[in-house]
Amino acid sequence: MAEQVEIFRASLEDAIEILTLQKLAYQSEAQIYDDWSIPPLLQTVEETRDEFSNSVFLKAISEHSIIGSVRSRVIENTCHIGRLIVHPEWQNLGIGTRLMTEVELMHRDVARFELFTGSNSIRNIQLYHKLGYKEFRREPLGNKVELVYLEKVMIGKKEDIGYKNP
């Protein structure tokens, strides 16, 4: 099943389908925090389209449907990764890992990768740790949520990539 999934760069025409998937995928996060007003659930089509001007979107495709996505944006020498999503029926099959790997390959010339998730999003944190990300900061976000910031610092050159755990 997961081996039939292909990953491509998304285009502006994919914005509505990605946003629809995002709202479905983030329902589990809203349940964890008992907060249905989290930004991924409130984002509009216009806001998503605007992100295409400064971010690279990837999409995971199965039988012509988008079943996963992630976005990235390079600022200075850091690749900021956001909104890794996988359709609930396709989770735990390695699709999130494949999307993250593609982001890292696309941006292999940066010094570090950075992302964040909620402190109660244990499955997300476990995935990021498995992929070599280390926590470097926590920040409160309202009364219910604490954000956990994780990074992967790269050493070496494009030809000699290794991971350094700060």
Key structural traits:
166 residues, alpha+beta, Aminopeptidase, eight-stranded mixed β-sheet, 6 helices, disordered C terminus, Acyl_CoA_acyltransferase, transferase, GNAT_dom, GNAT family acetyltransferase, acyltransferase activity, transferring groups other than amino-acyl groups
Explain this structure.
With 166 residues, the protein is α+β, with helices and mostly antiparallel strands. The protein has a single domain, classed as Gcn5-related N-acetyltransferase (GNAT) (Aminopeptidase, 3-Layer(aba) Sandwich), CATH 3.40.630. Helix content is 30%, strand content 36%. The protein has helices at residues 15-25, 27-33, 39-42, 45-51, 95-106, 122-130, and strands at 6-9, 56-62, 65-75, 78-86, 112-118, 134-141, 145-155, 162-164. Strands 1, 2, 3, 4, 5, 6, 7 and 8 form an eight-stranded mixed beta sheet that branches. Strand 4, helix 5 and strand 5 (112-118) form a beta-alpha-beta unit. The termini are far apart. Mean pLDDT is 91; it is low at 157-166.
Structural class of the secondary elements?
A: alpha+beta
The figure for the number of domains is 1
CATH topology: the name is Aminopeptidase
Radius of gyration: 15 Å
The counted number of beta strands is 8
What portion of residues is helical? 25-40%
Backbone shape: globular
CATH class: Alpha Beta
Low-confidence stretches: 157-166
The separation of the N and C termini measures 36 Å
Write out the CATH superfamily name. Gcn5-related N-acetyltransferase (GNAT)
Q: Which strand-content bin applies to the residues?
A: 35-45%
Largest sheet, in brief, is:
8 strands, mixed
What is the CATH architecture assignment?
3-Layer(aba) Sandwich
